[in-house]
Design goal:
Elements: E1 2-5, E2 8-12, H1 17-28, H2 31-34, H3 55-63, E3 93-96
Antiparallel strand pairs: 1-2, 1-3
């Protein structure tokens, strides 16, 4: 993900953004949060030591059964969105979300 304010790049997550966000969710949120509001972002708690066959995989698969589409709500994990200061009025903020490498696809 790249974020620019008035044409100046202020955040560039490089190709490790998916890892950073995953570890942030795993280490920062409680079991209750992982089982409730993080589901809106498509996160389901993995109760097994493998990626295949756990309840998380079954729940995500259920979302897309019979070619259904799904919508998710998630916060963008960038420092500029997690600070107490305001932006000056009429700033142009460009957010470019870059697709991750296929190895990380679920």
């Amino acid at each position: 993900m790249r974020i620019s304010v008035n044409g100046r790049e202020v955040f560039n997550s490089n190709s490790l953004y998916a890892y950073k966000t995953y570890f942030s969710h795993e280490l920062s949120y409680s079991q209750n949060a992982k089982s409730s509001h993080l589901n809106a972002a498509g996160y389901f708690y993995n109760n097994t030591s493998t990626q295949e066959g756990g309840l998380d995989t079954i729940e995500r698969r259920r979302l897309f059964e019979n070619s259904k589409t799904a919508q998710f709500i998630a916060k963008l994990d960038a420092d500029i969105f997690n600070q107490p200061l305001y932006l000056i009025n009429h700033c142009e903020v460009d957010i470019e979300i870059i697709q991750t490498i296929p190895d990380l696809f679920l």
